[in-house]
């Protein structure tokens, strides 16, 4: 049996974000906080548990995991399989929305509770070799905290070297190796000091054998790969000297399946860039009419490019 990839955000939420697996999420969070020198949580409340309404193809589905501690602190866990770029700013933006949304009208600011964001990412982001980075708001010279209300974790899976760690020791590393796709022959060792991890593994095995789960998983994988290709195409455009607005318009337009705004951003004299972009979109299997809108080329001109792929 071929196991599904637990880094798929739809699958990740099913394993860690369902009510029946709340103990799995709690164990993972406690290992994350222990490595950061924080005390363990006694319990959590899932604010957006997985349900059958979480469609893998619906962009509006919330596939991150939100939980609240017994003290009222908010924790958000998100799995990012591909780099959508501007990750740091995107993280702060969503953290700020999470923080500010706690207050109802006329409530005092002292009602705001600490918010923690945990990003598990399948790409290297920060310029160091640490797989686990934790950020707070501190004064530069003295290190004194302004407030402990902001805490952001980045768990970078590519920086985790399985050969450089002892699997028998347990801890956060074992959970991350499972997510990274450790061979099943090593699962028993991984769970030796992490017994709750076995429940996550059992859930993954069950879902991997479930026909409907596999269908939804594959639909989400296709969506994630297409989205990643769109972001990459936008970065290529930006690297070739297109304005940031043009590149952003390309990504957003393609994400919606409509590229009307992109054509306006391509000035005359960029014929080579137009053709190169068309080549890339053809390789991605994008419809000719959409490529035409995106590049400004005619369908006939695009059809002539096909043999050159």
Anisotropy-based shape:
globular
* Residue fraction in strands: 5-15%
Major sheet description: 6 strands, mixed
Q: What is the helix tally?
A: 12
Compute the number of structural domains.
Answer: 2
Order of helices and strands: HHEEEHEEEHHHHHHHHH
Mean pLDDT: 85
Structural class per helix/strand content?
A: alpha/beta
- Spans of 5+ residues with little confidence (pLDDT < 50)? 258-269
Trace the largest sheet across and list its strands: 1-2-3-4-6-5
Rg over CA atoms: 22 Å
Q: What separation lies between the terminal Cα atoms?
A: 36 Å
- Helical residue percent? 40-55%
Q: Report the count of strand segments.
A: 6
Description of the structure:
- This protein is of the alpha/beta class and 309 residues long.
- The protein has 2 domains: 9-215, no CATH class; 240-308, no CATH class.
- The protein has 12 helices and 6 strands.
- The protein has helices spanning 9-16, 22-35, 87-100, 172-180, 187-191, 197-209, 211-239, 244-255, 260-264, 271-283, 288-295, 299-305; strands spanning 44-46, 65-69, 74-80, 115-121, 132-138, 145-156.
- Strands 1-2-3-4-6-5 form a 6-stranded mixed sheet.
- Strand 2 (65-69) and strand 3 (74-80) form a beta hairpin.
- Helix 7 (211-239) packs antiparallel against helix 8 (244-255) and helix 10 runs antiparallel to helix 11.
